[in-house]
Amino acid sequence: MSSACPDYLERILNAQVYDVAIETPLDLAANLSRRVDNRIYLKREDMQPVFSFKLRGAYNKMSKLSPEQLARGVICASAGNHAQGVALSAQRMGVRAVIVMPTTTPQIKVDAVRARGGEAVLAGESFDEAYAHAVELGDREGLTFVHPYDDPEVIAGQGTIGMEILRQHAGPIDAVFCAIGGGGLIAGVAAYIKRLRPNTRIVGVETVDADAMKRSLAAGERVRLQSVGLFADGTAVKFVGEETFRLCQQYVDEVILVDNDAICAAIKDVFEDTRSILEPSGALALAGAKAWLAREGAHGRAVVAVTSGANTNFDRLRFVAERAEVGEQREAVLAVTIPEKPGSFRLFCSLLGSRNVTEFNYRYADPQNAHIFVGVTIQDRGELARLVESLKQHDLPAVDLSDDELAKSHVRYMVGGRAPQVDNERIYRFSFPERPGALMKFLDNLHTDWNISLFHYRNHGSDFGRVLVGMQVPPQDQSEFQDFLDRLGYEAVEETDNPAYKLFLG
User: Counting CB atoms within 10 angstroms of each CB, which of 54, 113, 116, 276 has the fewest?
Assistant: First the structure.
C-alpha cells in the first residue's frame, strides 16, 4: 500500500499510545439504557490522564519523530484537548512544546497546558486563526508541527479507541457514535472497525452550527464554513482535514446533527449514570446516539458513544443545568396570556395541576391582559400539546417557546419592567417549600381583592424556592395583609423600598 493511502489497520495495531494513555472502560449507561429501551455503552475517554482522547494521537505522532525533530521542539494549534495531549507527551519525552490556542479556549484548558510545561500562546478567536499563527510561528522557530487531526499517525493513535471497543465488547454492535471536529477521532475509529466489522454503522455527530463534515460529505468535497458556534468548543472547526475527509467518505455511514439543548441533556444523562461531568464536545456523541435511536424507533439495540472529553469551565454548568431539561424535552417553556382580573392567575395554576413549575415570570403590563413566561416539567411532547389545548379551552392561549432561542437565552431574563400605573404595590421575597401545593397554598390564603402585579420564580434545585411577588394592597388592608403573612407561614422579607426594585421595576 502506498504512502498516499496508508494501511490504517497496521498503523493502529502498531500505534504507540500506552506510555501515556490508558485503556479506558466501556461502561453501560444503565439508567439511560432503561429509559430509552436500548443498550448504550460509553467509551470513557473522559477518564484519560488529560481527560480527553487527544493524547493518543499526539503521543503516537511524536513517538514517530526523529531525534533531530524532537530536539528542535514541537508546536501545535488546538482548542484545548489536543494541546494537553501534546504538552503531556512532550513532558514525558523531555522536549519543548509550544501550544497555540484560540482566545476563546476555556481557562481550565489553558491552565492544564501550562501545568504540564507547555508554552501556551493565545491567538485568534477560532481554531483556524490559531492554526495559521501556529504554522507561522513554527516555521519561524524551526518547530515540528503536530497536527490535531489531519495526520495519519494522529489518526492511527485515535483509532486505538476502535481497537479497544471491539476487544471490550465481543457481541454485535449496531452503531458507534463519534463527535466530529476536524475528523481525526471518527476517521481512526471507522478505519479500524469497518475493516473488522463492516456491518457496524459508524455515525458522526456534529452541532447544527458547526457541521463542516456533513456539508463536505454531501458536496463531495471539503466545504469551509464561514463561522462556527463555540458552545462545543472542542469541535468548533470550520474546515475538516483532507485525510480525515477521505476516510470519512470511505467508512462513515452518516453524520447526524444536534443542538446545544440536546448536548446539555446528554451531559446530564452521563452525570446521572456516572457522576462525571463531560464538556459539551465530550457529550456530543451521546446526544447523537439518542437522536439516532429516537429517529429509528429503535428498541434493544447495542450502541457505543465515545465520551471524548471532560475539560469544561465550572461556570459553563450554569447554562448546562438551565437547558438540560428542555433538551431532554422534559421541560416546556410557554408564553401564556391571561385576562387581568381576579381569579385568572389561580385558574391558570389549577390547570397546571400537579406538574412541577420550574420557572415563572410575570409583570403587570396593562388593565386587560397579562403575559406569563412559565416553565413546566412534562413527560413528552404529547403531554405538552394536551396542556396547551387545555389552556386554550379555558381562554388562556399559550405559545410554545421551547425551541425559541431568543426566548430561552434572553427574554426569560428580561420579562418585567416598570409599572407606574400599579398603585399600592408591596414587594416581598418569599421562600416557598419546593413541593407540590406550595403555590396553591399561597393563592388560597391571598385576599381576592389583592391583585398580583409581579411574580418571579425559578427552580434552583434547593429545598426552598426563592419567589419575588408584587401585590396591590390598599393602606386600609395593612392589618389583614399582616394576618395573611402570619397565616401563610412562609419566610417573607419586604423589598418595597429596595433600590433595585425602585430603579428597574417600580
Answer: 276
Q: Which of 54, 109, 238, 268 is catalytic?
A: 54
Stretch 404-424: mean pLDDT, rounded?
73
Question: What are the tens digits of pLDDT across the range 98-143?
Answer: 999 888 777 877 888 899 999 999 998 777 788 899 999 999 999 9
Cβ atoms within 10 Å of 455's Cβ, excluding its own:
22
Is 289:175 a contact under the CB 8 Å cutoff? yes
Domains plus CATH for the chain?
20-52+152-323 (3.40.50.1100), 54-145 (3.40.50.1100), 329-504 (3.40.1020.10)
What is the C-alpha separation between 444 and 437, in angstroms, rounded?
10
Q: What is the pTM of this model?
A: 0.79
Q: Which one, of 198, 208, 194, 300, lies nearest residue 255 by Cα?
A: 208
Question: How far is it, in rounded angstroms, from Cα 505 to Cα 418?
Answer: 4
Per residue in 29-53, is it b (16+ CB within 10 Å) or e — as a string? beebbeebebbbbbbbbbbbebbbb
Q: What is the DSSP string of 330-381?
A: -EEEEEEEEESSTTHHHHHHHHHTTPPEEEEEEE---SSEEEEEEEEE-SSH
- As to burial, measured by CB atoms within 10 angstroms (0-12 exposed, 13-18 middle, 19+ buried), residue 363 is buried
Confidence of residue 3 (pLDDT cuts 50, 70, 90): very low
Indicate the length of the chain as a whole number.
506
Whether 308 sits among the annotated catalytic residues: the reply is yes
User: Which DSSP string do the residues of 237-275 spell out, in sequence order?
Assistant: -SS--HHHHHHHHHH--EEEEE-HHHHHHHHHHHHHHHS
pLDDT reading at 346 higher than 70:
yes
d(CA 309, CA 311): 6
The DSSP code sequence of 430-456 is EEEESSTTHHHHHHHHS-TTS-EEEEE
**Residues 398-401: contacts with CB within 8 Å, 24+ apart?**
398/334, 398/335, 398/336, 398/337, 399/334, 399/335, 399/336, 400/332, 400/333, 400/334, 401/333, 401/334, 401/335, 401/373
Specify the higher pLDDT residue, 102 or 15.
15
pLDDT digits (tens, 9 = 90+) for 27-38: 999 999 999 999
Task: Please report where in the chains the cell 501556529 appears, as a residue.
Answer: 134
Q: Kindly name the residue from 78, 216, 308, 344 that is annotated as catalytic.
A: 308
d(CA 474, CA 442): 19
pLDDT for the residue numbered 443: 75
CA-to-CA distance for 118 and 136, rounded, in angstroms?
18
What is the H or E stretch that residue 42 is in? Answer: strand 39-43
Residue 402: C-alpha distances to residues 137, 328, 362 (Å): 46, 11, 18
Q: Does residue 2 register a pLDDT over 60?
A: no
DSSP category for residue 210: B
